[in-house]
């Protein structure tokens, strides 16, 4: 087990207009579960593959434990990787798949057998040990891929979008299993995904990447509560945060000529206001500022689509919410996020917003 | 697996559409094959004036003939050498191309060229290079102290036809191997690299086993190639000689039938050859193909 330290890591592909990774600094603690998340082409997979040694590092330094690994072969880095397509050897049985990496490292036979039995028991794949991968379902293949990583007992696990080939239900299930597995093994893990929900639920620490740069690093709830930019604000959360053009005048947030919130200590001028759909309070009121367009029923709650002035706004409400064509929208001040209108970074509002948000465990 | 099925409105249209292919198969394959089987039971004089039914005597005589049995041995040696040489070399070239990124297409085009050369031309080409009097390779060999003469030395002659035949088949094998290698997902090799297998071990434990369907297919094609299509290469370079050193079965059919005008024996030989090919193909597809599936 070991931490991973990235210092000013860059990746420049020959012939590419701009670097794929533009200088990333990241300190991953021993035993931490870090999720790299971002849209396609943000450099998250490239970063992971550089840690694995499957891509060369153009500039900067990667250290696993206290060893700089820039020049090391993937095999020498003491990491195990779970691939998106599982990358199971199709001509080998499950047992052979799992033992391949151990045999190559000249581990004694007894030890190999012990480790495979142990991992197979944990992952509940013991009945399939002598099958070929093609005789397994997607979820079983996924477990075997994880088993192949576990038996190695490496310094770190690297996951490259491991759940994206599974159907929605199985993905949810395997997500839970990966979380439990990490709580049990406490091995440093780096996990790449483009699914913000997967990222939020799995991460000890979340790294949001955009255009080869880190946008924000932090605990998932901190990022959700205090996104550092419109990019992070829009990326995390479903339905996505409303990002609307507004104006601050005299301490009030003005939208379509009416104040949506008052008492701001922000500089006057144009801003981007961020409002979580679940934070918006609606009240049926003829002549209100919110015009209802349509409603999506989710069963447990509903999503209300409407507009204030010319701006489209989504609100998530519970089923008790009374709906009418015209409603008054209000926003508690502590739920408002302000961003720079052009640069997109977070603006201070002089409010004492909670900086951290830990789930409180009763009796903990 | 679901296959696409076309439904025709009229019953005769499908038959009409396959008729040209059927006609060609009948006229050029089935009919001559039937003729050969019939003729193998006859003894005829060269002009076809007298014909005697001799039953299986043509076959019995063949298997009593040391010359014919020697031709069997020559064929086995020739086939094994040519197939392994051309497949081995083309696999080596394909692996080399697979590691290249930028120049791969130029390289591929160059390697594919020999396939466009007619077999007889290939024979002549190598015959020139190895010509005992003026061949450039003979000259080089002489410098290192080897006296090459495929007109006198049977082993030299065998080497020559094996080289010429293998050279021609490399391009074909190469294309299939390149395609086969490219269909192996990159992530499998990466997984193997992380699993601590070096490049050589990676090749033999992961890449080569996954290539086995391609290898098997090429084995069937190459064996058939060496047994039949090498006729013109041999005819143009050694003409089966010296002595019987490079007379493979298909060349002997030609020699006895066309040159020697021993039609009955030649027909019997073709029938034997045909059964060998049917048997080989059957064995290969029935038994070996099952083992290369994964």
Automatic annotation (TrEMBL), chain A:
Single annotated GO MF: ABC-type transporter activity
Keywords, alphabetical: ATP-binding, Cell inner membrane, Cell membrane, Hydrolase, Membrane, Nucleotide-binding, Sugar transport, Translocase, Transport
GO biological process: carbohydrate transport; glycerol-3-phosphate transmembrane transport; glycerophosphodiester transmembrane transport
Domain ABC transporter: 4-236
Enzyme Commission numbers on file: 3.6.3.20
GO terms for cellular component: ATP-binding cassette (ABC) transporter complex, substrate-binding subunit-containing
UniProt-listed Gene3D superfamilies: 2.40.50.100, Nucleic acid-binding proteins, P-loop containing nucleotide triphosphate hydrolases
Alphabetical list of InterPro entries matching this protein: AAA+_ATPase, ABC_transporter-like_ATP-bd, ABC_transporter-like_CS, ABC_transpr_MalK-like, ABC_transpr_MalK/UgpC-like, Mo/tungstate-bd_C_term_dom, NA-bd_OB-fold, OB_MalK-like
Protein family membership: Belongs to the ABC transporter superfamily.
Protein name: sn-glycerol-3-phosphate import ATP-binding protein UgpC
Organism, scientific name: Pseudooceanicola marinus
TrEMBL record, chain B:
Ranges annotated as spanning the membrane: 12-31, 76-97, 104-129, 157-181, 202-223, 267-288
Domain ABC transmembrane type-1, chain residue ranges per copy: 72-284
Membrane topology field: Multi-pass membrane protein
Superkingdom: Bacteria
UniProt xrefs under InterPro entries: MetI-like, MetI-like_sf, UgpAE/MalFG_permease
Location relative to the cell: Cell inner membrane; Cell membrane
A single Gene Ontology CC term: plasma membrane
A Pfam family this chain is assigned to: BPD_transp_1
Keyword Phosphoprotein recorded: no
Keywords: Cell inner membrane, Cell membrane, Membrane, Transmembrane, Transmembrane helix, Transport
Chief place of localization: membrane
Gene Ontology terms describing biological process: transmembrane transport
Family: Belongs to the binding-protein-dependent transport system permease family.
NCBIfam families referenced in this protein's UniProt entry, alphabetically: PRK10561.1 (NF007852)
Subunit structure of this chain's protein: The complex is composed of two ATP-binding proteins (UgpC), two transmembrane proteins (UgpA and UgpE) and a solute-binding protein (UgpB).
Chain's role: Part of the ABC transporter complex UgpBAEC involved in sn-glycerol-3-phosphate (G3P) import. Probably responsible for the translocation of the substrate across the membrane.
Protein name: sn-glycerol-3-phosphate transport system permease protein UgpA
Source species of the chain: Pseudooceanicola marinus
Taxonomic placement: Bacteria, Pseudomonadati, Pseudomonadota, Alphaproteobacteria, Rhodobacterales
């Amino acid at each position: 087990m070991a931490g991973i330290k990235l210092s000013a890591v860059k990746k420049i592909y020959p012939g590419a207009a701009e670097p794929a990774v533009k200088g990333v600094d990241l300190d991953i603690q021993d035993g931490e579960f870090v999720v790299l998340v971002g849209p396609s082409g943000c450099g998250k997979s490239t970063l992971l593959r550089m840690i694995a040694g499957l891509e060369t590092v153009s500039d900067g330094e990667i250290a696993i434990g206290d060893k700089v690994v820039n020049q090391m072969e993937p095999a020498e880095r003491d990491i195990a990787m779970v691939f998106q397509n599982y990358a199971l050897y199709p001509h080998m049985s499950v047992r052979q798949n799992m033992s391949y990496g151990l045999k190559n490292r000249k581990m004694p036979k007894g030890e190999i057998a012990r480790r495979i039995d142990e991992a197979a028991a944990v992952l509940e794949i013991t009945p399939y040990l002598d099958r070929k991968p093609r005789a397994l379902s997607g979820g079983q293949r996924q477990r075997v891929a994880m088993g192949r990583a576990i038996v190695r007992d490496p310094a770190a696990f690297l996951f490259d979008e491991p759940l994206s080939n599974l159907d929605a239900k199985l993905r949810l299930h395997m997500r839970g299993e990966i979380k439990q597995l990490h709580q049990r093994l406490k091995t440093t893990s780096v996990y790449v995904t483009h699914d913000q929900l997967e990222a939020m639920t799995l991460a000890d620490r979340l790294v949001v990447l955009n255009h080869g740069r880190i946008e924000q690093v932090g605990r998932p709830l901190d990022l959700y509560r205090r996104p550092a930019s419109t990019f992070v604000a829009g990326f995390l959360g479903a339905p996505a945060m409303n990002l609307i053009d507004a104006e601050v005048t005299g301490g009030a947030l003005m939208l379509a000529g009416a104040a949506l919130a008052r008492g701001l200590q922000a500089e006057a001028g144009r801003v981007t206001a961020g409002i979580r759909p679940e934070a918006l309070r609606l009240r049926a009121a003829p002549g209100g500022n919110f015009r209802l367009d349509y409603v999506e029923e989710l069963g447990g709650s509903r999503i209300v689509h409407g507009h204030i002035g010319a701006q489209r706004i989504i609100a998530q409400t519970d089923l008790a919410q009374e709906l009418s064509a015209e409603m008054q929208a209000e926003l508690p001040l502590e739920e408002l996020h302000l961003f720079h209108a052009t640069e997109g970074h977070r603006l201070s509002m002089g409010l004492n917003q909670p900086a951290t948000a830990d789930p409180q465990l009763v009796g903990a | 697996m679901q296959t696409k099925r076309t439904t025709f409105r009229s019953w005769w249209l499908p038959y009409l559409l396959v008729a040209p292919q059927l006609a060609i198969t009948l006229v050029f394959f089935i009919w001559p094959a039937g003729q050969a089987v019939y003729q193998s039971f006859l003894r005829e004089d060269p002009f076809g004036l007298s014909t005697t039914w001799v039953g299986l005597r043509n076959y019995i005589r063949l298997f009593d003939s040391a010359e014919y049995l020697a031709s069997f041995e020559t064929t086995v040696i020739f086939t094994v050498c040519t197939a392994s040489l051309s497949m081995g070399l083309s696999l080596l070239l394909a692996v080399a191309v697979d590691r290249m990124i930028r120049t791969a297409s130029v390289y591929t085009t160059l390697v594919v060229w020999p396939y466009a050369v007619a077999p007889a031309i290939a024979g002549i080409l190598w015959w020139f290079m190895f010509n005992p009097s003026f061949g450039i390779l003979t000259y080089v060999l002489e410098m290192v102290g080897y006296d090459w003469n495929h007109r006198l030395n049977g082993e030299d002659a065998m080497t020559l036809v094996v080289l010429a035949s293998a050279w021609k088949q490399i391009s074909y094998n190469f294309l299939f191997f390149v395609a086969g290698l490219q269909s192996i997902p990159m992530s499998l090799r990466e997984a193997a690299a992380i699993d601590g297998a070096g490049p050589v071990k990676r090749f033999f434990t992961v890449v080569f086993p996954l290539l086995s369907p391609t290898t098997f297919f090429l084995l069937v094609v190459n064996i058939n190639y060496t047994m039949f299509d090498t006729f013109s290469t041999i005819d143009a370079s050694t003409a089966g000689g010296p002595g019987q050193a490079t007379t493979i079965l298909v060349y002997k059919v030609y020699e006895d039938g066309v040159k020697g005008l021993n039609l009955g024996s030649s027909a019997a030989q073709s029938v034997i050859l045909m059964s060998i090919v049917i048997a080989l193909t059957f064995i290969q597809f029935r038994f070996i193909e099952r083992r290369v599936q994964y």
